[in-house]
Design brief:
About 35% of the residues lie in helices and about 20% in strands. With about 625 residues, the protein is of the alpha+beta class. The strands form 6 sheets. Strands 7-6-10-4-3-13-15 form a 7-stranded mixed beta sheet, with no helix packed on it. Strands 17-18-19-21-20 form a 5-stranded mixed beta sheet. The protein has a 4-stranded antiparallel beta sheet with strand order 11-12-16-14, with no helix packed on it. A hairpin with a 4-residue loop joins strand 3 and strand 4.
Length: about 625
């Protein structure tokens, strides 16, 4: 793997002047940045350009099956003899190239990657039509029976294509560096609505037929589909929210300020370039907080707290409209270029809207998350580099706090050293010049050197970029957010641990973030008496805030505070977000009695969780490799 420091990115050529009266001139030569090999696609999209996808599919909610056709418009630039595409558990019925039926073959499945589909093409082939259907193990798809939805009246389907799961519902070149436009025709049962990462309807179709267009090239991991009993509410002229009828009023209330959030983001880093920004609140099984599908963020119902205290997640998904969707990491080894930038941008939006002390709390909680991962991996682990090495591995293994938090703290360090004004000018230029393109870590570092660091050797030394990008752990120059509000929380925690009654603690105006800091930094195991005292005053077992509830239940398991177990069972039945599931089940698995409880609960609710969450929890609870 190529390792480049900013200083090593530039070759210095000294040209001695012919005239003795002239000083020696330093010419900086920019080396060519070579596109990397993406180890997570078996396609040959580096030879055959994937220009456009026409998708024509039927969604069978009863059979839990997607079937239909994918027609690719291609440009065989390298005049290769076959097109190779990614598939995972797809049945390929027939294929036509430029209207003529052709033979094809599938390779044996490769772990994580699926089976490469080989299609013979000629030098001048233009269209490849593939008839196919999905399999029962399609990793992107979660099929929900009515009882698994919020309203419990109709079935529901949603996709999660990131990182490499688009291939399980569309035969495609499934890599983040491969962009294409698409149009889709989707048939669903009458009475249900279909939505995609595209131009979307706001009203139900009487026929169950929906058409979509995405005229901006996107990678396959941003392909998305949701089908269910869904309604729409507008927020302003370009933002709105979709949800099940029983959830829509709560969702609309929670997202009241999203229109202002979009305007704030534009003030920071330029125009929003995707048309509308809408969100859909999915049923409980959605495995992540949010997914930045263009024009339609998919989000978890766990952010609906009733007091708008958790909508910072939307700031994160919105920021992806610049960092990730607009400028995309070339491979999953460069994932920090998506998530580190987005975390930084999200916190700038939050600071602008909520003030510095509020944003500082989010920075500090992120720092704590990062340090937890460093402790888990070990301070010298290769998995703590920003530039990842995921060859031969599931790219999901790279979705840790390292790309998010180490990446954003690196950008924060740059800001602190060059000043906010210069940092914002740099990022605006970066987003503009790389719009709708992909970028590698090495190309970004070269761009950083050429456009911000330039010949400032003192700045280069201060930043110590190589330690951040190509080194383990957290460099010594990592910035730390202000502790103004958390210092007050610390004093209240100390008071409690010194037997001050909870009734006397000063918690009246605390936000979610203050409560998380208060609970996170308690001793490893409080006594059952201490848990009871906190619960009696603050009703933590009954909390409707998922962030607080999950942390409280982890503490309850650790303290054997059985009073919370019934509520914890209910929580695990209605939440599918891995961020909450994994630590809670993992805590139960630490003791024999806890392991029995975990096995019992998981057996009841496993079907409620997305396949991606099931895969992770199988390892934790069932000890599957």
């Amino acid at each position: 793997m190529l390792k480049l420091t900013c200083s090593a990115l530039l070759a210095l050529i000294l040209l001695a002047a012919c005239n003795g009266n002239k000083t020696t001139k330093v010419v900086i030569k920019q080396p060519q940045v070579i596109a990397p090999k993406d180890d997570h696609t078996q396609s040959n999209a580096d030879s055959v350009e994937m220009q456009h996808l026409d998708l024509n599919i039927k969604v069978d909610m009863d059979a839990k099956l997607i079937s239909g056709s994918a027609t690719w418009t291609i440009n065989n630039r390298e005049k290769v003899k076959a097109l190779k595409l990614d598939t995972y558990d797809l049945t390929i019925d027939s294929i036509f190239v430029d209207g003529s039926k052709v033979s094809f073959w599938l390779d044996s499945p490769v772990k994580y990657l699926g089976s490469a589909l080989h299609i013979p093409i000629s030098d001048n082939s233009k269209t490849v039509l593939i008839w196919y259907k999905t399999g029962k193990d399609a990793s992107a798809l979660q099929w929900l029976d009515p009882q698994q939805t919020h309203d419990k009246k109709h079935p529901f389907l949603y996709t999660q294509s990131e990182s490499i799961h688009a291939r399980s519902w569309i035969p495609c070149a499934d890599g983040p560096g491969i962009r294409f436009t698409y149009a889709a025709q989707v048939q669903v049962p009458k009475g249900l609505m279909a939505l995609m990462s595209a131009e979307n309807p706001q009203q139900l179709s009487d026929s169950g037929q929906y058409r979509f267009r995405m005229d901006i090239p996107i990678p396959a991991y941003l392909m998305a589909l949701a089908v269910g009993d869904i309604v729409f509410r507008s927020i302003d002229e370009r933002t709105g929210v979709y949800a099940e009828p029983g959830m829509i009023a709560k969702a609309r209330y929670e997202f009241e300020d999203v229109g202002k959030m979009v305007k704030t983001a534009e003030e920071l880093y330029g125009p929003y370039r995707w048309g509308r920004y809408d969100m859909i609140v999915l049923p409980p099984g959605f495995p992540i907080g949010g997914m930045e599908n263009p024009r339609l963020t998919f989000c978890t119902p766990t952010i609906i707290a009733g007091d708008r205290s958790l909508v910072n997640l939307i700031a994160h998904e919105l920021a992806h409209s610049w960092s990730g969707n607009l400028v995309t990491n070339a491979t999953w080894n460069d994932f920090w270029l998506n998530e580190g930038f987005t975390n930084y941008f999200e916190r700038r939006i939050t600071e602008q809207m909520m003030g510095k002390s509020y944003a500082d709390m989010i920075w500090e909680l992120g720092y704590q998350d990062m340090m937890d991962d460093i402790k888990t991996f070990g301070p010298t682990s290769r998995d703590t580099w920003l530039k990842a090495d995921l060859k031969g591995r599931d790219p999901e293994e790279g979705v840790t706090n390292i790309p998010y938090e180490k990446g954003s703290h690196f950008l924060k360090l740059i800001e602190l050293n060059v000043g906010r004004e210069k940092m914002d000018q740099f990022l605006n230029k970066y987003f503009n010049e790389h719009a709708f393109k992909t970028i590698t870590t090495e190309a970004f570092l070269q761009y950083l050197d050429s456009n911000l660091i330039k010949d400032d050797t003192a700045l280069r030394t201060k930043l110590n970029i190589n330690a951040w990008v190509y080194g383990p752990g957290i460099p010594a120059n990592c910035p730390r957010a202000g502790q103004e509000r958390f210092a007050k929380v610390d004093s209240q925690r100390d008071n409690f641990l010194q037997d001050t009654p909870p009734t006397e603690l000063l918690t009246k105006d605390w936000t979610t973030h203050e409560w998380l800091h208060f609970l996170r930094n308690m001793p490893p195991a409080l006594s059952a008496r201490q848990m009871k005292l906190l619960d009696e005053e603050f009703s933590l077992t009954k909390s409707t805030n998922s962030e607080i509830a999950d942390l409280w239940f982890v503490m309850a398991v650790r303290a054997k505070y059985e009073h919370a177990y019934s509520a914890m069972d209910q929580f695990l039945s209605s939440v599918g977000r891995q961020k909450f599931l994994d630590p809670l089940y993992a805590e139960m698995m630490k003791t024999p009695e806890g392991a029995k409880m975990a096995a019992r609960i998981y057996e009841k609710y496993r079907k409620n969780y997305h396949p991606l969450a099931q895969a992770g929890l199988d390892k934790i609870v069932l000890k599957k490799s």
